[in-house]
Write a structure and sequence with these properties.
The chain is of the alpha+beta class. The protein has 2 domains: 2-103, Alpha-Beta Plaits, CATH 3.30.70; 106-238, Pseudouridine synthase I, catalytic domain, C-terminal subdomain (Alpha-Beta Plaits, 2-Layer Sandwich), CATH 3.30.70. The chain is built from 5 helices and 10 strands; from the N terminus they run E-H-E-E-H-E-E-E-H-E-E-E-H-H-E. It has helices spanning 26-38, 71-81, 136-143, 194-206, 214-221; strands at residues 2-9, 45-46, 55-64, 86-94, 106-115, 128-130, 148-151, 166-177, 180-187, 236-242. The protein is globular and about 60 Å long. The protein starts with a strand and ends in a 15-residue tail after the last strand.
Length: 257
């Protein structure tokens, strides 16, 4: 039987999603918990790997098992064995044609910036604090140059292992909510550090350090060294994975932005 699950996690204490030799990944914790419920080893495949310190509210994964448990049994059993910073939010049996990664049609990430004079005690692990004022309208206007299918080499990490840098961004917007600036970006897939590097570039524009047209020139130049600094990981959250309606994958619940 193939089981799909939704997961949310605070990535602060983890070296990313993936199981690692020299660090603790979210995958390792999840496989241990599901293995306890299944009473057999469980291997989990996720929709999108997140880096160290990055969070998720809408991660999706699947696993195959011979164990027979109810959806409630998988859900409550897994969460009983998981630490407080990881939670399985839903469980759904799916057909063998479902694959958490390859069946996905798009991913959506959100980056939060706190733009005010003083830092936040409550959101110190969930947002990038910048004491200088940022013009979100300039950031939004600059971001529109990234819409469409492009070579995003200028925004990929030096160690990115993707075979090519072409991705299609279908929606990108920057909005302000009081002291908060929120970048939402959706694409068919993402390169390593792509959203963080885009964020750093847009911040340089929002601060007035660079002009709005700079984002387009950086994209066209395909040179990572000419883009902005990488924004820190803790402001980034994977918020949703999109699938064809036929799979009936639940959408994540979002309480505001």
């Amino acid at each position: 039987m193939r089981i799909a699950i939704g997961i949310e996690y605070d990535g602060t204490s983890y070296s990313g999603w993936q199981r690692q030799r020299n660090g603790l990944g979210v995958q390792e914790r999840l496989e241990q918990a599901l293995g306890e419920v299944a009473d057999e080893p469980v291997a989990v495949t996720c929709a999108g790997r997140t880096d160290a310190g990055v969070h998720a509210s809408g991660q999706v994964a699947h696993f195959d098992t011979a164990a027979e448990r109810s959806e409630r049994g998988w859900l409550l059993g897994a969460n009983t064995h998981l630490p407080d910073d990881i939670c399985v939010t839903w469980v759904k049996p799916v057909g063998d044609d479902f694959h958490a990664r390859f069946s996905a049609t798009a991913r959506r990430y959100r980056y939060r910036i706190l733009s005010r004079l003083v830092r936040s005690a409550l959101y110190r692990h969930r947002a990038w604090w910048l004491y200088q004022d940022l013009d979100h309208r300039r950031m939004h206007d600059a971001a529109q140059a990234l819409l469409g299918k492009h070579d995003f080499s200028a925004f990929r990490a030096a160690g990115c292992q993707a075979s090519n840098a072409v991705r299609e961004v279908t929606d990108i917007r920057v909005a302000r909510h009081g002291d908060w600036i929120v970048l939402d970006v959706m694409a068919d897939a993402f390169l390593q550090h792509m959203v963080r590097n885009i964020t750093g570039t847009l911040v340089a524009i929002g601060s007035g350090e660079e002009e709005v047209a700079w984002a387009a020139r950086v994209l066209d130049g395909r040179d990572r060294t000419r883009a902005g600094v990488a924004a820190p990981p803790h402001g980034l959250t994977l918020v949703q994975i999109f699938y064809p309606d036929a799979f009936a994958i639940p959408a994540p619940f979002e309480l505001g932005r």
